[in-house]
């Protein structure tokens, strides 16, 4: 349980660094999301996508705004 909460906390606070490629950022998220402790939790794909988008920098602001305002 504690490990799951720790992983969720990491995902909530993850940010793409200025010198980090998009590929590296997404691989980092994938590594965390594929952890068995998190896979078996109740975190939804929607939450994972939301945290991924919120971690992007200003270079992706238009994309994030567009995607977060689409009706589900």
Percent of residues in helices comes to: 55-70%
Mean pLDDT: 89
> Secondary-structure element order, as H and E?
HHHHH
**Strand residue content:** under 5%
Number of domains: 1
Distance between the termini: 30 Å
Number of E strands: 0
Radius of gyration: 13 Å
Number of helices: 5
The geometry reads as globular
Poorly predicted ranges (pLDDT <50, ≥5 residues)? Answer: none
**Biggest sheet character:** none
Structural class: mainly alpha
Walk me through the topology.
Layout: H1 2-13, H2 22-33, H3 36-39, H4 45-54, H5 61-68
Could you explain how this protein is built, in words?
The longest helix is centred in the first third of the chain and has 12 residues, at about 1-15. The protein has about 70 residues and is mainly alpha-helical. It is about 65% helix and about 0% strand. The protein starts with a helix and ends with a helix. The protein is globular and about 35 Å long. The chain has 5 helices and no strands. It has one domain (about 1-70). The chain has helices at about 1-15, 20-35, 35-40, 45-55, 60-70.
């Amino acid at each position: 349980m504690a490990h799951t909460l720790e992983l969720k906390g990491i995902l909530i606070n993850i940010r793409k660094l200025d010198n980090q490629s998009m590929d590296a950022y997404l691989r980092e998220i994938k590594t965390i999301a594929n952890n068995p402790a998190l896979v078996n939790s109740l975190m939804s794909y929607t939450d994972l996508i939301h945290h991924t988008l919120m971690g992007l920098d200003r270079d992706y602001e238009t994309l994030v705004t567009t995607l977060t305002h689409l009706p589900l």
